[in-house]
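batch_manifest entry 22 of 60
target: Mannose-6-phosphate isomerase
source organism: Treponema parvum
requested by: lab member K.T.
priority: normal
notes from requester: please return tokens only, no post-processing; we will run our own comparison against the previous entry in this batch. if the run fails, retry once and flag.
--- input ---
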Amino acid sequence: MLKLKPVLSEKIWGYELWIASTHPDGEQKEFSAALGGDYPLLVKLIQADDTLSIQVHPDDELALKFENLPRGKTECWYVLSAKPDSKLVYGLNGKYSAKELENAIKEKKLEQFLNTVEVHAGDFIFIPAGTVHAIGGGLRLLEVQQSSNITYRLYDWGRDRELHVEKGIKSIKNNGVQKVIKFPGKFDCEYFSLEEIDISGSYDFCVPSGKNIYDWQLVFALSGSGIIRTFQEEGAGGKPKQENFTAEDIFALAPGEKISLNGNAKLMRIACKNAPSLKA
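--- output ---
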């Protein structure tokens, strides 16, 4: 069990905390050392005080073609908090050709093509690679994604930053209206698995065994507080390792670890695809 320390990345629109990362742009070296390699997921906390650029991420195939990198970027957001009337861009508001989108960007009219939705705490947004999107100001999000840092900006609200129109338009796949949902309790996709766990009192479980980096799991505290212990012996004294946790703490759990939780909290289990549940 490892309590992970966030890596701060300041932005013109707010900041990101890379809270579980072996990616070289925000590596937690202790996490990398524990795994002995590259974890396929990257987890962030995003604080958006202003609107982010309109952007899109490539899939694995295009990441390899355009950047010679092995992973594209499919991701999801869990809304931790939202100021009143907070919005985000979630896909386009119809079906458009590449030429129509290119002209809209040139004429600074892309906003007319966007699907803008209001969001609230507890909402869940799944963003497969190829989906046009942007986080609005006033939002704090938990982001779970493939371990990739490829972003193609299509439009940046007049800010003087580089755009990536050609690659971005070629990366768009999910060209149509998307819907925000409340988190359903459990979610699985091709790359990752998320599961809410509510604890009130004590809760014991064993992380499924395995010998692969992919078998490590993460536990993030959405709210509440408590104590997390591992029964794995630590040092000559043989005492279990113990940590206090509060909201927004995150722990990496090794395959086969026996874990005991005590407190009142809502947790999010984050794991690679098809991971077994941690629920009893």
